[in-house]
Structures are given as C-alpha cells and as structure tokens.
Amino acid sequence: MELPGKGGIYVSQSSQFRAPVNLDEEVTATVEVLEISDKKPMVTLKTTVTNAAGKTVVRGEAVMFVPWLKG
User: Fold this and answer.
1) CA 50, chain centre distance (Å)
2) Cα–Cα distance, 26 to 41 (Å, whole number)
3) How do residues 5-16 score in pLDDT, each as one tens digit?
4) Are 47 and 59 spatial neighbours (Cβ–Cβ below 8 Å)?
5) What residues pair up with 65 in beta bridges, in sequence order?
C-alpha cells in the first residue's frame, strides 16, 4: 500500500519531539499502520524517527483519509 495515494488527504498529525537533531544528522523515519477503519476510508499510522545511534527522536501518530479504501 502506498500512502497517501491518489486523492489521499493527511487529516492530522501529532508529534512528540523527544531529543534534538542537528542539521547535518542522518535520521530514519518509520511508519507503521496501526488501524484501517472498517467504517470509513481512514488509516491510523504510528510514526517514529530515530537517529544513527537508534535513539527515538520523534514519536507520533497520523490519520489519513484514503478514498480508494473500502470503508
């Protein structure tokens, strides 16, 4: 599944910034699907950003409207 896909809308994002990141520092963003709604074409995502040492620097959750999903 590729998100947001055609017609997808980023509805909301909440983020907790847990540690500073320098401008030249490499980070890795990972997104995990937590829930695909049975009633609406909505997807809830867990977002995690880690630094090169593996420390979580940002943690969050997002909600996307994905019209091509059957709700």
Assistant:
1) 13
2) 34
3) 888 899 999 999
4) yes
5) 9, 42
